[in-house]
What we know:
Two copies of one chain form a homodimer. By secondary structure, the first copy, chain A, is an alpha+beta fold.
Amino acid sequence: MGQLFTVVEGGGVTTPKGFKAAGLHCGLKKTNRYDLGAIVCEVPAAAAGVYTTNQFQAAPLKVTRESLGRDGKLQAMVVNSGNANACTGKQGEADAYEMRSAAAAAFGVEEHHVGVTSTGVIGEPLPMEKVRRGLAGLPERLKADGSEDFCQAILTTDLVQKMTCVSVQVGGQTVYIAGAAKGSGMIHPNMATMLGFMTTDAKISTANLQALLSKVTDETFNMITVDGDTSTNDMVVVMASGLAGNGDSAELTPEHPDWAAFQAAFQYVGEYLAKAIARDGEGATKLIEVSVTGAASDEAARAIAKTVIGSSLVKSACFGADANWGRIIAAVGRAGQPVQTETVDIRLGDIVTLEQSRPVRFDEEKAAEYLKGDFVHIHVDLHMGPGQATAWGCDLTYEYVRINAAYRT
Amino acid sequence: MGQLFTVVEGGGVTTPKGFKAAGLHCGLKKTNRYDLGAIVCEVPAAAAGVYTTNQFQAAPLKVTRESLGRDGKLQAMVVNSGNANACTGKQGEADAYEMRSAAAAAFGVEEHHVGVTSTGVIGEPLPMEKVRRGLAGLPERLKADGSEDFCQAILTTDLVQKMTCVSVQVGGQTVYIAGAAKGSGMIHPNMATMLGFMTTDAKISTANLQALLSKVTDETFNMITVDGDTSTNDMVVVMASGLAGNGDSAELTPEHPDWAAFQAAFQYVGEYLAKAIARDGEGATKLIEVSVTGAASDEAARAIAKTVIGSSLVKSACFGADANWGRIIAAVGRAGQPVQTETVDIRLGDIVTLEQSRPVRFDEEKAAEYLKGDFVHIHVDLHMGPGQATAWGCDLTYEYVRINAAYRT
């Protein structure tokens, strides 16, 4: 089977047909970096969202969920950075609703076709006069090549912008899928949260889009951890304009012959963004990938992979380039999932350190050399079933402590 | 109600009647610090144990469990530090059994009255010739004031020894309860594990002792976290000689009029040792105590308290003396327990930072001053039920990263 899709170099959220994007500085960030952005579609787009499991959900999530609940479509997503509008009570809710109505007026779209999201400090009221002025200025900034402006507007402590785009053939027509994301700590209330925005010009129903987004999120965004914390504002939203081939293409359903290719492309975008967030984790010097195979089930594999990637001791050892497999097996053993204690293999890259639960003599120097790189692959094979999963994270460094010990001011 | 028990200054595991202890250097640690120790009782003592939930349990745990399973009594506990005898396969099991039989021979007690435990490097075979020689030398080192020798023998990366003793009146007679513990990271396979050893001269059945130990462990040792990792070797063991008042005192049962006092004293010893471990956490500069009240149940309170104390972001903020309550409420919200999102109070010491889920203006300077101390109390009141719990931990520091990034060699 050849490549099912193609990466579009330089592509972004405005590459799929029908989308424009914008970014500007309205005054929420202290420096003059962009802090307000929008993605706007020519037509109401089939849309789907997934939200944080944190019980203290920020006000914007409630508003976006309400918009999506109306007819499953969005025409504009607006986002501000610098203030999370979380733990802000009734005023915060009123502010999120006002952000929605002001955006609807500015872009000339239905109120219930607008989603809003915020990221930044918790517990501070949104400075609404700045937001209002910013929203009024957004329409004239909308550009067909506005992907980067939008990406800049959603960053907080992120060091790099995160976007990607792929194309895939559906019924002989080129369909694009793109995404942008932000996130550096899973949560750091100074400047917080993981956000993902995906666009596509595929023609697909809200229900199928939601099912696909949920599945892909479980295998990508939900498989990364920087520090085990979950933000009050996490959200991933996808909008599908249906404008590929001017909209005369057949609707994409799981029965469509090109569904597998579309799904693979969609998954690629999610995984690309998720890994970009993990690699850009606060203070990180490397991306760590943990693959678990041979588990009792995929769920068990997921839980084990996340326990290993979340272990402070494993993360510290990777920072120190120490091939400390004892910490890995200890994490496997406390994940609360079935394991056979006599059949575990552990590899670091190509280096076998444990085989059938017995230590293997390996070249410590070669292992240290491998662990010093900017990508570390940990493979745990449990040899007990068909379950598998992959999780991503980063090392735990002095810099992480420095960033998170700093005063909020 | 007055004080139910009295702290015995300078008391240790040999203060309760019938116990002696010893420590010596047999060569498992590279420096000449003690690395082998024992507590021995004049008579077979009613005994109980709790063990790690990690599925990769080290060989010594299996052997100790087997001894206790025979007739619920132990007369000697031997422990080595410097090597965990974990992930060592069949040879490791054979070595643990040999440690038991050699100790039984040395002390002249029944094999099934000996418990063994190990802490140190994972995956290395125990150097048995050193252990054998060491065990043979232990009997002549046994002392009625050997508590400190024993304490030294169980330490690994610990900076301080951890022991305490209290006395309590039972039926007009003085009963002693004492304990010693080690632990610095929940696990750090270089030099690993949390171990607790308690002794008492109370007359109590194995069944009542086990029930009490399990209850107290849940509220003390199981409520601390340094880094969220769980060792393969964690164990807490208690031995009750029954020799208080020369053994003619009535047996302690939950129906005994002094049971409440005994239980409170027992709990004090467990909590003292647990807090000592948390305070001595790797790289820690302070002890953090998290109290949760007003939760739906005690179980919910426990889960929430442990999530807050385990948050890398909360720990980093405490290190940085940053009154970042947003991280605390975010941790409360992701603990997977019921909360009312509108009724949460958060206090740092006496400083109210959140009331009925609304931010309270507080003196940032005063808060920073408080957080700079070596003890930080975080109080979360959910105002929804009778559940409460307390958890202990420490801050996350540069030093933690340094210790755990270091090479094993």
